[in-house]
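Good morning C.,

I know you're traveling, so I'll keep this short. The sequence:
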Amino acid sequence: MGFHQPVAAAVTDLSNEAPFFPCRLAYVSTTSCKLAKHNGRYIRNPLSGNVADIDSEPTISNSSFTVLNYVYLDCSAATLTKSTTAPTTTNGIEHMTGDTDNLLVGWVYPNGSNQFADSLTERLVMSKFHRLEVAMKAEGAFESNMTANGTWRTPGTRMLLSWLRPPDEDVTLMAFASLRHDASGGNTCRLGIDIGLTGTPQTQKSVSADSYKALSCKAIDVAGSVARRQAEILYQGVNVSPNKFDSFGDEDRLVATLKR
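The tokens, ready to paste straight into the viewer:
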């Protein structure tokens, strides 16, 4: 009876294979974010060969946090770190510049208290992978008898949204209000959305408003480099005599939908 020579196991070069990322960066609290599992727990880094087991869902804290930070997974230790060091791309994989074992998994930006933020008005934690669609909404009221002298103004109850701009998706904002002039004779109300808080809206809608009129307008923040973005509602009255106008007050809001 003859003997068969053993068959050598096939060897596959995985050096250029993109890793599978069964994870998403998630907000936990104002002081903590975690790398949550998403249909798996192992992440292999083809650049270093290391495999990270994220079953424990590693976390980061808000210490030393004043500007945009990139969040990296260290595949040799299965830990998270945040850094101001921007990523580099090697073979299609984004990693910390100078360290191929730290793979980019998301971004965080501090709120005014240098904390993590994820609420209806602030979405400042964003995952690179498996983003979820979330709503944003800032509600307020244009106070009665606002002075409006032909310049763009911020309502007394400010309607402001803050978010991290996705690198690959536009963000659409909608503003709604119900306004009228406290005068007659062809006066005009204008509602606008100011992206970037420049004091001048990028989009606006006008209506003759001798009686209460519903107004709405839309603005789009185009995808680009990841950065904190802000937008708010502005208003303007034209040909006002006297220089006053009113708000119906229960439908004034700025809304948006984005993935984070």
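Safe travels,
E.
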